[in-house]
Design goal:
By secondary structure, this protein is of the alpha/beta class. The protein has two domains: about 260 residues, Glycogen Phosphorylase B (Rossmann fold, 3-Layer(aba) Sandwich), CATH 3.40.50.2000; about 190 residues, Rossmann fold (3-Layer(aba) Sandwich), CATH 3.40.50. Helix content is about 35%, strand content about 20%. It contains 20 helices and 18 strands. The strands form three sheets. The protein has a nine-stranded mixed β-sheet with strand order 3-4-5-2-1-6-7-11-12, sandwiched between helices. The protein has a six-stranded parallel β-sheet with strand order 15-14-13-16-17-18, sandwiched between helices. The protein has a three-stranded antiparallel β-sheet with strand order 8-10-9. Strand 6, helix 5 and strand 7 form a beta-alpha-beta unit. Helix 10 crosses helix 14. The mean pLDDT is about 95. The protein binds adenosine-5'-diphosphate (ADP). The site of adenosine-5'-diphosphate has 15 residues, from strand 13, strand 14 and helix 14.
Length: about 475
C-alpha cells in the first residue's frame, strides 16, 4: 500500500510536450516519487502531442459542461516511465495546432488561455474532492505554475476537499487577466479581493495559487528567499513574505541517464572522472565541427541558452572585444532576441576560428558543447534553478555563473579553501556587471592553466550527486508535513 496518493497537475510533461524546465520536472519527479512508494498520477491537458503519443488509453470519466467550461473527459494511460497519466481531453480547448500557450499564427498567447487552464484547475479540484467520479482518491493535489493556480480556489468551495500545494518554476510568468474573467470562470465572487486572486486590479492565476495553497515550493532554496525580496518578487513579494514559513525551496535534479558522458550517444568519445582522454577528443571534434582552430591548449568557453535578457548574455557579448585579446575560443548555441542573435552571428563572422555561433535549437550540439568545452558561461540575472550548470559539472566542465537563484545553490566557487575541502565546482561572481564577468573568466583561465588545480576541480564536478532521489525525498517531507503526518 502506498503511503501517500498525490495528483500531480502540470501543463507540460517530457517527453510528450515541452517548452521548458517544467516539462523536465514533470517527467522526472513523479517516477522518483513513485520509487519512494508514493502513488503519483499526473493530470495533463490533452494537446495533440499528448493524444498522439500517450500509448494505450481508456476513457475513465466524462464531465458535464461545468458552468463556464465545455464538456470534457478523462483518459487513463501509462507513461513509459511507468507513471499513470490522466489526460484531460477537451477538443474545444486543447486539440489545436501550435504550442501549449501560443497561437503560432498571431505569435500571441491563445486568447482563451484563462478558460483552458481554468478547466485544468477545475478538474484537478474535482478529482481532489467528493465530486470525483474516480475510485482513486488523492490525499493531496500538487499543482505547478500559474496554469494550475485556480485549483486551490475551486477546492476552497468544494466538499471533501483535500489539501493542495503549488510549485513555482518561474515567478515571472503569472497568468494575469482582466477581472471580467472571474465571472466566466465561475469563481466565488468574494475571491476577487486583495486577500484572494486580485493583483493590482487584474485576476492572477499565480497569485491565486500562492494565496490558496497549503504550502508553496520553488525549485531552489536560494530562489525561495529571493522571491520574497523586492528585486525578484515580481509584485508578489508581499504575499510571499507573509507566507514565508509555508515556502520550501527544493533543488531540481537532472536525468542522469540522458546526461551521462559515459554513454551519451551524441558524443564521438565517451569519458568519465577516471578516464578524461575522451573529453579531449570531444573538444577536438567540437572545434572541428564549429570551424574553430583545432587546438587542445586554448581554453574553450561555451554557451547553450535562450538568448534573452534573463540569461545575461548581453554581458558576455559586451566583453567579447576584451575576450578576443586573450588566448580563448567561444562557442554559442542559442536563439531568442533578434538583437542578441545578430551580435552573436556578427562576432562569429568577424572572428573565424575564434568565435563560433549557431542560432537555433539543437539537442545533439548542446550535448557536444557540454562535453567539448572547458568552461560554461551562465551569467543569468535570475535563475529559479537552471539546468545547464548541472550538465556542465557532470561533463567535467566547470561553469562560470552569476550568484543568483539555483546557480548559487548548485555551484561552489573555486578558491583555496574550497579546493582544499574538495567542494570547488565552478566560478561564481556577484554584481551583475561586464567587468565582474570578465574578471571571473580571467580567474577561471588561471585555474585552467594550473594542471593540479584544474584536475581537482573537474573531478569534484564529475563526482557530485545530481539525481532526482534527493529532491523526491524533500517533496515527500513537504507532503507529509501538509498532511500533518510525521516525517
Ligand atoms: P530555461 O528553462 O530558463 O530556458 P534552463 O537552464 O532551466 O533554462 O533549461 C533550458 C534547457 O533548454 C536546457 O536543457 C538547455 O540545454 C536547453 N536549451 C536551451 N537553448 C537551447 C538550444 N538553443 N539548443 C539546445 N538546447 C537548448
Amino acid at each position: 500500500m502506498s503511503e501517500i496518493k498525490v495528483l500531480f497537475v502540470t501543463s507540460e510533461i517530457a517527453p510528450l510536450i515541452k517548452t521548458g524546465g517544467l516539462a523536465d520536472v514533470s517527467g522526472a519527479l513523479p517516477p522518483a516519487l513513485r520509487a519512494l512508494n508514493i502513488d503519483v498520477r499526473v493530470l495533463v491537458p490533452g494537446y495533440p502531442q499528448v493524444m498522439k503519443q500517450m500509448g494505450p488509453a481508456e476513457v475513465v470519466a466524462t464531465f458535464p459542461d461545468f458552468p463556464g467550461f465545455p464538456a470534457s473527459r478523462l483518459i487513463f494511460s501509462i507513461m513509459k516511465s511507468g507513471v499513470p497519466l490522466l489526460v484531460l481531453d477537451c477538443p474545444a480547448l486543447y486539440r489545436r495546432d501550435g504550442g501549449p500557450y501560443m497561437d503560432p499564427v498571431t505569435g500571441h498567447d491563445w486568447t482563451d488561455n484563462p478558460i483552458r487552464f481554468g478547466l485544468l484547475s477545475k478538474i484537478a479540484s474535482v478529482l481532489g474532492s467528493d465530486e470525483s467520479p474516480l475510485s482513486w482518491h488523492p490525499d493531496l493535489v500538487h499543482g505547478n505554475d500559474w496554469q494550475t493556480g485556480l485549483t486551490g480556489v475551486y477546492l476552497s468551495v468544494a466538499t471533501g476537499a483535500v489539501p493542495n500545494i503549488i510549485t513555482i518554476h518561474n515567478l515571472a510568468f503569472q497568468g494575469n487577466f482582466r477581472p471580467k474573467k472571474v465571472e466566466l470562470l465561475n469563481l466565488p465572487p468574494e475571491s476577487f479581493n486583495v486577500n484572494g486572486i486580485e493583483l493590482y486590479g487584474n485576476m492572477s492565476f499565480l497569485k491565486a495559487g500562492l494565496y490558496y495553497a497549503y504550502h508553496i515550493t520553488t525549485v531552489s532554496p536560494n530562489y525561495a528567499r529571493e522571491i520574497q525580496g523586492d528585486e525578484l518578487g515580481f509584485g508578489l513579494q508581499g504575499l510571499l513574505r507573509s507566507r514565508s514559513s509555508d515556502i520550501t525551496g527544493i533543488l531540481n535534479g537532472i536525468d542522469t541517464d540522458e546526461w551521462n558522458p559515459e554513454t551519451d550517444p551524441y558524443l564521438s568519445d565517451h569519458f568519465s572522472a577516471g578516464r578524461m582522454a575522451g573529453k579531449a577528443q570531444n573538444k577536438q571534434a567540437l572545434q572541428s565541427r564549429m570551424g574553430l582552430e583545432v587546438n587542445s591548449d586554448v581554453p574553450l568557453l561555451g554557451v547553450v541558452s535562450r538568448l534573452t535578457h534573463q540569461k545575461g548574455l548581453d554581458l558576455l557579448l559586451e566583453i567579447a572585444p576584451r575576450l578576443l585579446e586573450l588566448p580563448v575560443q567561444l562557442v554559442i548555441l542559442g536563439s531568442g532576441e533578434a538583437s542578441m542573435q545578430k551580435i552573436a552571428r556578427d562576432l562569429a563572422q568577424e572572428n573565424p576560428g575564434k568565435i563560433a555561433a549557431m542560432i537555433g535549437f539543437d539537442e545533439g550540439l548542446s550535448h557536444q558543447i557540454e562535453a567539448g568545452i572547458d568552461l560554461f558561461v551562465m551569467p543569468s540575472r535570475f535563475e529559479p534553478c537552471g539546468l545547464n550548470q548541472f550538465y556542465s559539472q557532470r561533463y567535467g566542465t566547470p561553469p562560470i555563473v552569476h550568484n543568483t537563484g539555483g546557480l548559487a545553490d548548485s555551484v561552489v566557487d573555486c578558491n583555496a579553501d574550497t579546493l582544499r575541502e574538495g567542494t570547488a565546482s565552478g566560478f561564481v561572481f556577484s554584481g551583475m556587471t561586464a567587468d565582474n564577468l570578465f574578471a571571473t573568466i580571467q580567474r577561471a583561465i588561471e585555474v585552467y592553466r594550473d594542471e593540479r588545480k584544474w584536475k581537482a576541480l573537474r573531478k569534484n564536478c564529475m563526482t557530485k550527486d545530481f539525481t532526482w532521489e534527493t529532491s523526491a525525498r524533500a517533496y515527500r517531507e513537504v507532503y507529509l508535513k501538509v498532511l500533518g503526518r510525521t516525517v
